[in-house]
Amino acid sequence: MMNLVENTVTYSKPQSILLASMIIFILIGLSSCGSQPEESSNWSHYGGGKKNQHYSSLTAITKNNVSQLSEAWSYQSGDADSFTQIQTNPIVIDTTLITVSPKLKLQALNAKTGELIWSFDPFEIKKDEAKGVGYFSLNVCRGVAHYQDEGKSIIYYAAGSNLYAIEANSGVPYQPFANNGILDLHNDLGKDVSDLYIAMTSPGIVYKDKLIIGTRVSESADAAPGHVRAYNVHNGALEWVFHTIPKPGQEGYESWEDPEAYKYIGGANAWSGFSMDEEHGLVFVPIGSASYDFYGGNRKGDNLFANSLVSLDANTGKKIWHYQTVHHDLWDRDLPTPPVVADINKNGKEIPVVIQPTKSGFLYVLNRFSGEPVFEIEEIEVPIEGVLDGEKLSKTQPVALVPKPFARQSFTEEDINSLISKKSQDSIRQVLSKIRSTHIFDPPSKEGTLIWPGYDGGAEWGGASFNPESKMLFINSNEMPWILTMKESQQIESQKVTVEKVGSQLYTRNCIVCHGEDKKGSGDFPSLVDIENRISSDSLISLLNTGRGMMPSFNQLNEDEKRSISSYLLRLNDLQNEFKGKSLLSGSYHDVPFVSTGYKKFLSPEGYPAINPPWGTLTAINMNTGEHEWQIPLGETPEFEELGIRTGTENYGGAVVTKSGILFIAATKDSKIRAFDQKNGDLLWEAQLPYPGYATPSVYQIDGKEYLVIACGGGKLGSPSGDRYVAFSL
Q1: Half-sphere exposure of 478 toward its Cβ, with a 13 Å CA cutoff?
Q2: Where are the alpha helices (DSSP H) in 41-171?
Q3: Which of 77, 179, 382, 476 is most buried, judging by how many CB atoms fall within 10 Å of its CB?
Q4: What is the CATH number assigned to the segment(s) 8-409+452-480+613-729?
Q5: Which of the residue ranges 122-131, 596-605, 636-645 would you say has the lowest mean pLDDT?
Q6: Is the pLDDT of residue 506 over 80?
């Protein structure tokens, strides 16, 4: 793989730095470079605080006594099934722990004992709409937002396509908000998206009397736009909208070559949440890629504000600055986590910054008030030849050189997994020789393109942790190679086609990316090979109407199309019948000529990653200097652990750091939660969990006693699903 610093061009200041941002820097930044410390003794916000530092100032648990931690309580919600997960980072309100169950019940627990205080089930409200399907969900829930003032204590969280306002003391909907405590996430996006998939996986963030929200949307060509919205916390009235896909007359509009792109392109959504400099009224918005993920011939240009970190005035939604980390993304490299808001000391000068981790393994360190890079970033020339028909790539991409990447940036023959047989190594070598793998920005292709360090990072939604005293940042990372293969998406030229033909094409356009060309699924997506033995046609159509778990609804399809795709998947006897209805395949909306054949991990015949370990890491970075202090494998593969080989594993969920110098993290497939020494990465303590904890822990204190709590939901990486919250204390 080519060296990333070769063929570079001189980096200039981001085009986003406007006169307004410089005025703010002068008036605010110089007078108060740092920001006031935020409350960190209790876990009152998602990520520990609005700065997203994952930091606790509690010190009762120390390096000397952490080995004495034991289970204090465990709560079991009783509503897990084979497809559920819990990714929730719970918050603490006084002595109450606010959690979300696998089936998205909002629940309040006694933070000392784990006893249930109240439970709110959003699907009780919608049982009639479910038509006998029972629980249905279009999202996981990673956390909640909380507003408290004037005697009000309200929790905001999402289930399906609804945002709920729930009274924290009673667990009942807060009636003055929107429609009796419920706000439809389809509202206020500038066009009718009522039939499109919209949900929230990460919580909004509260500023004064405003709740700022982002959304998860489809990654297909029919995605809804991901505009950022702010609502009044009291009545649910819309306060402002920031258009992530600009309209005519708005900044960034010219970055889309098609002047009509804003009408049909979706995505560019803030799915991973927000962080904030509350003192200066700045909210930081990490924005995902535009849809369709892997082909951009119908969205030529840099595509602002996709793949950008955007600073907004939290009062008005007006843009202060932006920095785009990938131009014209074709690799699903959306920003996976809110940035850390911090102050660092560079060359003896205190600098207010935001630190943005990426799936590529880069850290972009930007001045908090201006968006200017604090450490070196270069626009490197990237491959632009051999693209799919109609595609047009950016000639350069911005690469952060300091700090150096926390994930490997190449995969060559020398990196092939040495823990497997020579025959297996040869099979990997053969695949590697046939796909495009010379550069991390190799374009998508029909022969296959290496996605590295992986679709799921590098960094993922768990994000980074930061100790504001030591100025050390800690980031867990995945290193799992994937292969992206594109195929032509055939057009339906006539209505005189069979049910099978329409069903097949609908599968290719809507389902293949998750379930694969062979219908065998991958990762979190189940196999459909024998689905006809597991579900009826009516039930499958109901599932297409509602979605479930990681599967979105497909209400953009008409009834004829739903019946057709059901017949195709279930191999029903009407496949050869002529398709009688009307189909979106006839070209009634903008579509793409190429689609991915599915999310495919690059594995050995034995099922291990094709690359040498580590497959998951934990890295400590000195943010004053940008230097790595240490890096260790995170997680263990049992069969190799027995041989004394530390492999690390894929991991989901972040870490917590404490003032006493401890880092707590679960995240790994091996169902353990661990404590590490922040100074050197030494293991201080570990405990076995009932299910993997694919979530970020919370640290809090009640009556002088310090607790560590983790959601144990499993359900990823082939691990069983669980429904436990487990708390530890001395």
Answers
A1: 29
A2: 127-130
A3: 476
A4: 2.140.10.10
A5: 122-131
A6: no
